[in-house]
Design brief:
Layout lengths: L1 H21 L3 H7 L14 H17 L26 E7 L3 E9 L3 E10 L4 E8 L5 E2 H10 L3
Antiparallel strand pairs: 1-2, 2-3, 3-4, 4-5
Length: about 150
Amino acid sequence: MRRFLLAGLAMLLLASAVQAQTSSPPVDLVRSFYEPGFDEDRLPLSPRLSKLLEAAIANSKKHNAPVTGLDFSWILNAQDAEPGFDKTLKFAELKRSATDAAVRVTFHNGREEELVYELKRSVSNWVVDDIRYLRGTPASLAKMLETGAKETP
């Protein structure tokens, strides 16, 4: 009996931990991408975006040249960050449902930038399904990676 109580308590604690992780607002995840020392290679990607990235990387290796979608910082929409850009960061949750969310990020990095992260809920957390770049020439990371997977540099 005691073993069942302990097992039940362990399951309850595990469920609480999972619930706390999945109930964290999507804006908190996106904000973490801009913390000092964040490694962009650790960006949590949806299966769809991961497949597009893998295909673009394979094409880049095949041609031994960079392809569209791989030659810039996705979170900056630029090559590098200017000193102090982080002081201009603003975050806003645009929408959230049980399965989808959108978070807008604006900042100044040599020019005004506006990015919208399209997020999907995975089993235990939110993952990036696309990033839309709204200033200058509007673009979508997913579309860029799709192009990069097919193009001949």
